[in-house]
């Protein structure tokens, strides 16, 4: 049994069990009661003696605690996200934090923990995550010492829990709002845009220009398409609009929509929005024409058929041109060769045309081959794999196709063993750079035995060479199209594993994708991507050095970034991705775009200060919401369970916790004095009875 008042504690440790104690007390009380009822002499003295005796049996102990009061711990979360840089918000925040420090110090017995949150730059951390920061800084605070939290923010908080989880928050949680209740803003909102799209097709993007408060005048906007073209127009505010966007290339296609500045608006950062559409190729259509059966023909066919995204049309000319016996042409094949349909009507529907050891024959007249040359100039792609046929007078070099070829034969054929070598230019070119098995001294791949001697034209790039540094692989750009030539027909030796084989499939894959203008294989390219909290810039070039890159951040800041060579032909740099949105990169020749965070970043979706998002939190935890422009509310302490906010004031919880350092105990009936009092009472009772 214990009775506590403040730091004093009275406890009873009886010498007999409590049931026996209460039995003795009951018997004694009955006896004394009977004496009092019968008005016997000495009844009061006997009652006093009984009380002293029961007190001795109860053995009362008086204890006093030596205590140390524990301080309450309050948390302050400061919103340092990008939107806090608008208007006077940062100044209001800094002033409020300083006043809070002073007022908490004046309360006494209260500690203050301050945490900060910034705008995330990845999809998982996008937006202002204040409650996540609050959870981190309060994780090790004992629950019985937690006094509550104060959040200093513009109210645009993107991790407010749902209704089912708000009740789990510990409180009170107060919010001090920076900014103003009368802010004006205009922003561009992408309502609908495809995440993926087929290249060569057009897709619709829906958007609107949102204004608060709503305006009536048309808004001037500029639309930047993925190909760099800019369209200017005017639209009505707060009404959904639609534009048709052509997807011209594989990879990222960025559509940027920007609106003119509205007078008096809080910021223009969200006056533009982006839609990032990943262009993917549909099934690639390849036309393969083999001039005659040979060991490498099956290699070409197997490579192309193994790719599920390739639709292959393959024709092999089985009858050699020197065999002339008068057989009608229409009877020379099991299936009629649809030359007119392929080379006049539907040629432009193919993504790539391959001539494999083709010799000039009556099957394809010069007019058809001239059409192939025009196909290249208009943007088509041709790959020529040459054997001895190319060096003869009936080769492709003697047809109208010669004007667009990368190399022209000299008429000689080199017949000797050699290992294909990557040239110095090839070491920097993405088609041949870093091929598996390549080595500075001698490549670790098998030999070939034949090379067609040629001279290059059309500013061809020689990426691989054979004996005497003669061209083996040459690439050329002709007007809008591209041509690649293999000046040997023995690549199949690599595919068959001769002397260890070689990277034929990888090389052919790279050549094919370069011919079809795959962005990753462009020899001159500027690109950037987000890697964690950094923006990694990559400049691919055949030059010996790369110019500094001018980087414009989403907020408009411009900086010059020097580039360093990481591997041949590739120069890189990394800068902190401190902002979310569209980065514009220029190096004087090329322009590129990169998006950090998400294209529809939450931080700038709505930048007006508001208390609406935190209102459910304040209501659930007993907190409050106050605008700093109306003045700093008074700060006080309130007992556990008491009201924690009101008009012009807010309170932290006074938990009144303490730590016991020592306990001083005093037995009340175990001292000589208490024993003397008991003996004196008994003696006086006997003396009184003896008279």
Note the main attributes of this structure.
alpha/beta, 691 residues, elongated, eight-stranded mixed beta sheet, 14 helices, five-stranded parallel beta sheet, single chain
Overall description:
The protein has 691 residues and is of the alpha/beta class. It is 21% helix and 35% strand. It has an eight-stranded mixed β-sheet. A five-stranded parallel β-sheet has the order 5-4-6-7-34, sandwiched between helices. A five-stranded mixed β-sheet has the order 9-15-14-11-12, with no helix packed on it. The relative contact order is 0.14.
List the helices and strands and how they pair.
Elements: E1 2-5, E2 8-12, H1 18-37, H2 43-58, E3 60-69, E4 72-79, H3 89-107, E5 110-117, H4 130-138, E6 146-153, H5 163-166, E7 173-177, E8 185-192, E9 196-198, E10 202-212, E11 219-224, E12 230-235, E13 241-246, E14 251-259, E15 272-280, E16 284-290, H6 297-306, E17 310-316, H7 339-345, E18 352-356, H8 366-377, E19 381-385, H9 388-391, E20 407-418, E21 421-422, H10 424-428, E22 448-456, E23 461-465, E24 471-478, E25 481-486, H11 492-495, H12 504-515, E26 525-531, E27 534-540, E28 549-552, E29 558-561, E30 564-567, E31 570-576, E32 581-586, E33 591-596, H13 615-621, E34 625-627, E35 634-639, E36 645-646, E37 649-654, E38 658-667, H14 672-690
Parallel strand pairs: 4-5, 4-6, 6-7, 7-34, 9-15, 16-17, 16-18, 18-19, 19-25, 35-37
Antiparallel strand pairs: 1-2, 2-3, 3-38, 8-10, 10-13, 11-12, 11-14, 14-15, 20-22, 21-23, 23-24, 24-25, 26-27, 27-31, 28-29, 28-32, 30-31, 32-33, 36-37
Helix pairs in contact: 1-2, 2-14, 7-8
